[in-house]
Design goal:
mainly alpha; flat; two-stranded antiparallel sheet
Length: 288
């Protein structure tokens, strides 16, 4: 059964508090792009001029203003008309998944891009090719980790699985922060792969919950969570440009702990959810 969103052009929420939450959650996505423009200006790699950076900032501010106006217009009309009980959902769930994906997929993107250089500069006597091969173990775990995250979520409960996986992610990055040139290289690779398992299984666990929040808005919720993964990558790589490798891993571990606290407030979907299909019929879908 296809459940089509009742409104297009902006995510529809079911309370005034959720509307303000949605507007606030849109801010980091624009700030991340602004941060990227700043790093590409003379303040960073100097890919373009300072004037171009200011121009891009102006464009981002305009886009945010237009997006906010559209979000407000669509939702105010919707909320004033009254939200049927069958259409209500908790936007808190969306915000928590955004934070979780910031720490999981955001850290994956950041670490995959820097890990070959990390191995090359940390361990003496290895070539660039060997460093790349050693670092590939992090990405290799994707073959099994993401599906396993979804399986854990279905088997042991969504919230419990998320807590375990993000907790493991935080511990894994803390362990990577302890690595130095004195480590046995195979042990360093195993530690990297173990951390990667929790990172990517956490991503799978996030998307195991996405369609259970509001089925007719699965695409919008998934898109927003995915965007927060890219926000995380920009933030983490910006941090890396100012700190040591060890501190970089510690920062990710600390942010994962913030995600862990957020997940504690996640409502584990159970029982059933009510959805209104495109033809107006109401369906009760069993969950858990």
């Amino acid at each position: 059964m296809y459940f089509k969103p009742k409104k297009t052009g902006a995510m529809v929420v079911s309370s005034w508090g959720a509307l303000w939450g949605l507007i606030l959650m849109n801010i980091p996505m624009h700030l991340a792009l602004g941060m990227l423009a700043w790093r590409l200006s003379p303040a960073g790699v100097e890919l373009f001029s300072t004037n171009m950076m200011y121009l891009l900032w102006g464009v981002l501010l305009l886009l945010f203003t237009v997006q906010t106006q559209q979000t407000w217009r669509i939702n105010v009309e919707h909320l004033r008309a009254g939200v049927p009980e069958a259409d209500k959902y908790s936007f808190k769930q969306v915000g928590i998944l955004n934070i979780a994906y910031f720490a999981t997929f955001g850290s994956e993107l950041a670490v995959v891009s820097m890990l070959p250089l990390y191995f090359l500069e940390t361990f003496d006597g290895i070539s660039a090719v060997k460093a790349g091969l050693l670092a590939s173990g992090f990405a290799f775990m994707n073959l099994v980790s993401r599906p396993m995250g979804g399986w854990f979520s279905d088997k042991f409960g969504r919230r419990k699985s998320m807590l375990i996986l993000i907790g493991g992610l935080a511990a894994g990055y803390f362990l990577m922060g302890l690595m130095d040139s004195h480590w046995w290289i195979p042990l360093a690779v195993l530690a990297t792969m173990a951390c990667s398992f929790f990172v990517q299984a956490g991503e799978g666990a996030v998307f195991a919950i996405v369609p259970l929040i509001k089925r007719s808005m699965t695409g919008q919720i998934a898109g927003m969570a995915g965007a927060y993964g890219n926000v995380g990558a920009v933030v983490y790589l910006t941090v890396l440009s100012y700190v040591s490798y060890s501190m970089f891993f510690y920062v990710i571990a600390a942010s994962a702990l913030v995600g862990l606290v957020a997940v504690m407030f996640l409502d584990d979907p159970k029982g059933h959810i009510t959805e209104v299909a495109e033809d107006g019929t109401v369906h009760r879908i069993n969950v858990g």
